[in-house]
Amino acid sequence: MNARQAQTSAKAAGILILISLFAGGFAEVYVPGKLLAVSDPMVTARNLAHSAQLFRSSFALYLLEAVCDVALVLILYLLLRPVSYTLSLLAAFFGLVSTCTFAMAELFYFVSSLPVLDANMQQHLTPDQRSFFIYAALTLYAYGGSIFMVFYGIATTLRGYLVYRSAYLPAWLGVLWMIAGIGFIMKNLLIVLSPQHASDFLLMPMFGAMIAWTAWLLIHGIDAAKWPDSMVTSSP
Hints:
This protein is mainly alpha-helical. 78% of the residues lie in helices and 0% in strands. It has helices at residues 3-35, 41-50, 52-80, 85-111, 114-117, 119-124, 127-144, 149-165, 171-193, 204-219. Helix 2 (41-50) packs across helix 7 (127-144) and helix 9 packs antiparallel against helix 10 (204-219). It is elongated, with a radius of gyration of 20 Å. It starts with a helix and ends in a 17-residue tail after the last helix.
């Protein structure tokens, strides 16, 4: 990959991250917050029945986000490979695993709607069974989305380290990414070991890092003059 191709890839990564931010914000924050009441399945059922299209739209946007995430794994691997082939590949593997584990959690999110949106299932479940089904699925969704954050955290930390070491991306962006990744790792460990201390504030650095990273890639991209056209990679 030459400098011109790397610059194009950096801009593409910025666009993909921007799409992921909006799609993820709508599908994973706004809609669940509006429709889902984990402690009250009956309220959730009513909300889903009245806003079925909104729920389906949110899942469609999650799929868009997941597609962007998979593409980003490849692009970030290529952009960071000149710094360290081994660590860039390792970050790509952790990134793919994090996407897969979150997809598993999203499956429970979609399944939670079936007692309301699937006419065949409605016929075979009593109201109490539907309530329990919704509660169980949403509980699994919540846990599935949080107890495997360590994979995304490690991928982000590794990428931050590679950005920090690179000459063609600003070191401060790498530091932001490392802080954000460590926050995800700590949140995951606390959920498992000490749930009462698993504060959502540990996730906040990720939002700042993602916004800064997106803005930088879209506006500046890489420093083409410092891109190693020879593609000689450094040691890990």
